[in-house]
Write a structure and sequence with these properties.
Blueprint (H helix, E strand, L loop, with lengths): L1 H18 L14 H5 L12 H12 L10 H11 L9 H6 L4 E4 L7 E4 L2 E7 L4 E6 L2 E6 L3 H5 L4 E5 L6 H8 L5
Antiparallel strand pairs: 1-6, 2-3, 2-6, 3-4, 4-5
Length: about 180
């Protein structure tokens, strides 16, 4: 009986780590909501991506084989966000690193947030596992941003999409007939 308890507890722990609020980066302080704990990092009361929105972005990323992209990380991320219904004016990873309209910097990433280095961008998949999705040398895939390779690239920044930003440049571009 004791032999069966250990695997069952291990399976339960793994499930909680992967599927529970901790596995999705939703750490909470006692008596405080996630939004309240991050309020000091927000520009205002703008609604940002919810966990469900982040999962929609990851679903679009997993379906990225159907996306047309030029083979670099920033175009892939832009196409995924648009496919998931969260448009923004295309920006290079350098511009994203510096901060662009439509995103706000956060310090506690959640699923669907951008992870950006100077010269590379991806989408956070599992914050507790430090995993992100991006274009790699072998094509689209996931990586662990806590590995030595990514740490040597410098400190990553995390950005969350602002939902009520109407993306005025996107509308203007569409009126002029420019593509994405």
């Amino acid at each position: 009986m004791r032999i069966l308890v250990k695997p069952a507890l291990l399976a339960l722990f793994c499930w909680l780590a992967l599927c529970g609020p901790w596995g999705l980066g939703q750490t909470r302080q006692a008596g405080a909501s996630w939004h309240a704990t991050n309020a000091s990092h927000r520009r205002g009361a703008e609604p940002t991506l919810t966990l469900d929105d982040g999962l929609a972005i990851i679903a679009a990323a997993l379906d990225s084989r159907k996306l047309r992209h030029s083979g670099d990380c920033s175009h892939l991320v832009h196409a995924i966000y648009e496919r998931a219904g969260f448009p923004y004016i295309y920006a290079s990873s350098k511009d994203l690193y510096d901060g662009v309209e439509g995103f706000q910097r956060v310090f506690n990433p959640q699923t669907g947030d951008l992870i950006v280095w100077r010269g590379h961008v991806g989408i956070v998949v599992g914050p507790s596992q430090h995993s992100f999705f991006s274009f790699k040398s072998s094509g689209p895939g996931t990586s662990d941003y806590s590995t030595r390779y990514w740490i040597r690239r410098g400190r990553a920044r995390f950005y969350r999409y602002v939902k009520n930003d109407p993306c005025p440049g996107c509308v203007l571009r569409a009126r002029r007939g420019e593509g994405s």
